[in-house]
Amino acid sequence: MCAETSRSTSAIRSRARGEKKPALARELGADHAFDHTEADWAQRVREVSPAGVQVVLDAVGGEVSRAAFGLPAMAFGRMVVFGTASGKVPRFDPEQVHVRGVSVTGSGPRVFIQPEYGFRLLRTAFELAAAGTIKPVLGPVFPPAEAAEAHRAFEERVTTGKVILVP
């Protein structure tokens, strides 16, 4: 879960369990970071951004999406859903979307339905990485023989960064 504050371009991030991932978010430039498995995480976001946030990037779905929906600022906030790590597709009340004046969009299927769009995003990401503008966070490296263990670590969300299989 990532939300951009309406006060600045600083990110407020909420990632998986424990302090390790929020600490990494702060190290990478986030002003505030929260663990979305803590019961009060959404309230803590509201405390640092009482007017709401500009953007919520939601990769979790389910209960986290429900809590996050209250975070975008009224009239101009946005919620972008791009994953369902919880296994539950987020559901939003169209009346509340309208009343609050926020936009709710998804980003997943377009890269499959329109391959040229996906290739353009990939090309841009590689260009930004080559220029040093973005730097991927690399996580643990596993040999192919340990692919099941790599997958388990990823599913249990105990890794930080991209899980890598290297022959």
Summarize the structure.
Residues 1-13 have a biased composition (Low complexity). By secondary structure, the chain is α/β, with parallel strands linked by helices. Helices cover 35% and strands 22% of the residues.
Topology:
Blueprint: E1 2-5, E2 11-15, H1 20-27, E3 32-35, H2 41-48, E4 53-58, H3 62-68, E5 78-81, H4 94-100, E6 103-106, H5 110-113, H6 115-130, E7 138-142, H7 147-155, E8 162-165
Parallel strand pairs: 2-3, 4-5, 5-6, 7-8
Antiparallel strand pairs: 1-2, 1-4
Walk me through what this model shows.
With 167 residues, this protein is of the alpha/beta class. It has two domains: 2-111, 3-Layer(aba) Sandwich (Rossmann fold); 137-167, no CATH class. Helices cover 35% and strands 22% of the residues. The chain has seven helices and eight strands, in the order E-E-H-E-H-E-H-E-H-E-H-H-E-H-E. The protein has helices at residues 20-27, 41-48, 62-68, 94-100, 110-113, 115-130, 147-155; strands at 2-5, 11-15, 32-35, 53-58, 78-81, 103-106, 138-142, 162-165. A six-stranded mixed β-sheet has the order 3-2-1-4-5-6, with helices on both faces. It has a two-stranded parallel ribbon with strand order 7-8. Helix 1 (20-27) links the parallel strand 2 and strand 3 (32-35). The longest helix has 16 residues, at 115-130. The protein is globular. The model is unreliable at 1-16 (pLDDT under 50).
